[in-house]
Amino acid sequence: MRRDVFQAISDPTRRQIINLVTHQSLNLNAVAENFKVSRPAISKHIKILTECGLIIIKQQGRDRYCEAQLEKLNEVSDWVEQYKKFWNTKLDALENYLDKLQKKSKTKKLKKKKS
Q1: Within the chain, what is the greatest distance between any pair of CA atoms?
Q2: Distant-in-sequence, close-in-space partners of 12: CB < 8 Å, separation ≥ 6
Q3: CATH 3.30.70.1060 fits 5-68, yes or no
Q4: Low-confidence ranges of the chain (pLDDT < 50)
Q5: At 58, which helix (H) or strand (E)?
Q6: Which pLDDT belongs to residue 41?
Q7: CA–CA distance, 102 with 91 (Å, rounded to integer)
Q8: pLDDT score for 106
Q9: Cβ neighbours, 10 Å, residue 93
Q10: Rounded distance, CA 61 to CA 64, Å?
Q11: 6-17 burial, b for 16+ CB within 10 Å, e for fewer?
């Protein structure tokens, strides 16, 4: 079953695993030692991460090492970026509107003082 990157990063444990193996390649036991859940539970998380392409497993002797492959996170970045642009446009429009209101308010106050 092929999973997507959004499913992988939706779980806090998987995000922590990604963070761990981003800094260094770790074997499965070393990854599991960082969590208070069972080794099979960590294996399931790692399986999901490998299925979506965020982690690859490399065999070195008897050990299997997890390495981060973060290129797939570009999908998330691209998805977020479209909403960032949308909200920046909306917030810029709101700022312009509030500036106009503030200028009108100052103009009215000045006219009242002169009267």
Answers
A1: 90
A2: none
A3: no
A4: none
A5: strand 55-60
A6: 95
A7: 16
A8: 78
A9: 10
A10: 8
A11: eebbeeeebeeb
